[in-house]
Description:
The chain is an alpha/beta fold. It is 33% helix and 27% strand. An eight-stranded parallel beta barrel has the order 4-5-6-9-10-11-12-13, surrounded by six helices. Strands 14-17-18-23-20-21 form a six-stranded antiparallel beta sheet. The protein has a four-stranded antiparallel beta sheet with strand order 15-16-19-22, with no helix packed on it.
Amino acid sequence: MNKLALLACSSLVLTAMSAVSQPSLKNQGSAKQLYVDEKPFLMLGGELGNSSASSSAYMQPVWPKIKSMNLNTLLAPVYWELLEPEEGRFDFELVDSLIYNARKHEIKLVLLWFGVWKNSMSCYAPYWVKKDQAKFPRARSKNGTAQEILSPFSENSLQADIKAFKALMQHIREIDRKEQTVVMIQVENEIGMLPDARDHSTAANEAFAKNIPPNFLNYLKTNQNNLLPELKAIWTKNGSKTTGNWEAVFGKSLATDEIFMAWYYADFINKLTDAGKKEYNLPMYLNAALNYKKEAKPGEYPSAGPLPHIMDVWKAGAPKIDMLSPDFYNLDFKYWNDLYVRGDNQLFIPEIRYEQGVGAKALYAIGHYSSVGFSPFSIENGSKENNAEITNAYHLMDQLKPLILQHQGKNTIEGVLFDQKSTPKQEIKLGDYRLTFNHDLSLGWSPKAKEEHWPMTGAIVIQLAADEFIIAGSGVVVTFNPLKETSRAGIAQIDEGVFKNGKWIPGLRMNGDQNHQGRHLRIPEGDYSIQKVKLYTYQ
């Protein structure tokens, strides 16, 4: 073949590659959905423990295990220290192994870039970065002590991180653009400043004394009527000023220190993300280490990360980031999720403690919040009980994926969660009916009902018609009432069944004792099932 023919073939290949639509986020109603291979994709995920992806041999028994648990996505770290062990020399062997084995087991990947920061610290920076403190300076505490944290005020640290991240994204594009095994990227991991609310290095102090960057002030002015209440309260309390340095505009406080630090973290991340997306424009998100106590002060938790009370700072400073996402290791699941669906932020739960109730939380997050996905942490190390729970919950949602994706963002899908014994009944209005949910143990039929703590339970609900619903989950009892109070609701039929290739296949007709002689729908605690109910009214 002559050179002209080779060039023609190369051009055709490049044209074909450019026509491939990479994974992206698209709006549907009030929700954003992840699209892969030009189709909406529901992420039933799990995240590896921090060190698991550092050995391909260690991972070999993990792949079939997670496949058997009904996962379709694995969240796996990529380590800067192993990707670039010597400056300018990149080793993609671990990345290639992840992608190869994921394809082999029909699993999608979300890659977690453990670059400059991981859980606040810079522990995954290569040795050649760590040892050269003159070139890659550390953040410093208020008393001047250097921390195990690279300062975001260092241009050298930024450019080194960008160089490695660009190399990673270019490599993924070259080997995976067609197959789309890698569907999303997490940029760094749980960014936050400790032990103070901000960096007190010389460069940080100089930036703190300067006027606030105009683009942040412009964001405040442009969005003053739509700012989230936490930032707005601090700004307006000090007179809603639009010129001056950080303390002049926001006042002298730890809150101001945190806002300042969040801005410069966000600016760093935005430049890093932009550089990566220019190589391969995958969806990219940030995860946040939530305050362990609501009353904790900045510096007592990893401050200035993508936390809900400073989401506006991150939205202003890092517009290239697609989602801000909470990591859950505390209580108040509903409380924190409610904070993360404000300001047009799409919920995604990339990391959550692997414990009892994780299956119920998955159903609730995807049903109530239209979450892009769900991912328990250290998925390969779960207990037998927790493995069974997430396996069963994912089995239900795997069957329901077409319906879930069809209904997200359209007010025809909901979720319920009973996260403690005292959780009151929950009412949902869908179609022509009000559905009232209670914990299964509230019936008092089980010996567990007398125990102090009840297992966490939950369900997902999808409206098929004004009088027809799918209810899937575990440990719930549902009664029905028409929205027209002059009528009463009757149960025409309840079928327990399965979906195969999107087609409903009914099994048991749930009548008699199974629906309390026509008075409720019940999925016992410990069981996982899909039930389809059709209602009617009478007077």
